[in-house]
Amino acid sequence: MAPMQWRDATVGGPGATELSLVLPCTEEPELFFAESPHDVEQAKVMCRGCRARLACLAGALERREPWGVWGGELLMRGEIVPQKRPRGRPRKDLAPISTPA
């Protein structure tokens, strides 16, 4: 089976007379643009079972969406990032400081 292109994605079944938006992102849309890393991870989990996930992600990458959860991935500045960093300065103990020899 060939991968579905985002332009070919449809919502609803064959013979549907009106657009039916039964997608996880329509239940709590603000969750997909949340500031909290916990909320972002929750949105990514909600995308896992979505039938439009791959088409959603492909479309977002093509449009270079500036931010948000699209197709189960977090996008920042049009690119996929693994996780959202909490606000504030990064902890000093996460990256070792190299000293000149």
Give an overview in words.
This protein has 101 residues and is an alpha+beta fold. Helix content is 26%, strand content 11%. The chain has three helices and three strands, in the order αααβββ. The N and C termini lie far apart (57 Å). The model is unreliable at 1-7 (pLDDT under 50).
What is the strand tally?
A: 3
Termini separation: 57 Å
What characterizes the major β-sheet?
3 strands, antiparallel
- Uncertain stretches: 1-7
Kindly summarize this structure in a few lines.
Helices cover 26% and strands 11% of the residues.
Mind sketching the topology for me?
Blueprint: H1 24-27, H2 37-47, H3 53-63, E1 67-70, E2 73-76, E3 79-81
Antiparallel strand pairs: 1-2, 2-3
What are its keywords?
26% helix, globular, disordered N terminus
